[in-house]
Amino acid sequence: MTRSELEARRAEGERAAELGLTLRVMIREHLAASQEVLTRVPTQQAGSLLAVTEQAIDAFVEGYERAQHQAVRQEEAARREFIDDLLYGRSDLGRLAERAERFGLRLSQAHAVAVASGPEPYGDGYPVARGIESAVLTRFAGRQILLTTKDGRLICVAPGDQPDVLAFFAKQAYAATDGGKVAIGRSHPGAGGVVHSYEEALNALELAERMGLDGPVLHAADLLVYPVLTRDRQAMADLVENVLGPLRNGRGGAQTFIDTLTAYFDSGCVATEAARRLSLSVRALTYRLERIHSLTGADPADPVNRYTLQTAVIGARLLDWPDTEG
């Protein structure tokens, strides 16, 4: 076959793919046409006819696959653009809702978002992402769920009235990422609700990193007190400085005493448990608490002083004090 004839076959293959014709049927049609011609040619030319048929089918399939690959790339680009617009709220909400139906979401409903992070970044097509997506979609076949990745994190968007979906995703993500963390935002209505829930989940992950929060799954609803505490950052900074500033004068600096107070409060103010967490003797821990009392004038064992100290310690951790003071 000539170059122009081969290119014509490729163009026909592309057109067949665009029309949605199946490749199996089209190959069968080629073979049927060759079989018909074969009955009318001399026997000595049969080999040539088969060679031409092979060329024609090969060119046709090449064009068909090229069109399919192009369609897949366009679909992936459209899906990525939609996800970016969905998670950042950069598109007209009405138009976004129309596009969402194409990807299995109804933005007129409330949705919640779970975000998982691990020791390494993950992208679409990565084995970890594919494994989690397969497990979730198999477990909840027919549900309106969107699974994707963004900035190296794994993301699941599910209807707000189906918390079992996000709980299962969290379990799968925790196992697949070798102990990564998963944060789940609250359920919010509308297209803007997806953005809101996504931002809550991201903030929860950041907060967990900064505060050293334990637990593989974090719920934004359980962490609402922290945004409240930092809403007025200047007031919080003043509290931290006024209450904990004198700890700089102690041996080891302020951070040693902050770590002591953190362990003490996290253990429910039980000295033996706090000492164990710090790998100290109870006597050494008691000495540190007494030193904190003498430096700050606030007694960690006193309920009134304890609240002030604990709030200041939380503020110090949120503000990375004293590392970022000034």
TrEMBL record:
Residues 89-207 form the CdaR GGDEF-like domain. Residues 258-313 form the PucR C-terminal helix-turn-helix domain. InterPro entries: CdaR-like_regulators (IPR051448), CdaR_GGDEF (IPR041522), PucR_C-HTH_dom (IPR025736), PucR_C-HTH_sf (IPR042070). It comes from the Bacteria. Belongs to the CdaR family. PANTHER family: CARBOHYDRATE DIACID REGULATOR, DNA-BINDING TRANSCRIPTIONAL ACTIVATOR ADER. This is Helix-turn-helix domain-containing protein. The lineage of its organism: Bacteria, Bacillati, Actinomycetota, Actinomycetes, Kitasatosporales.
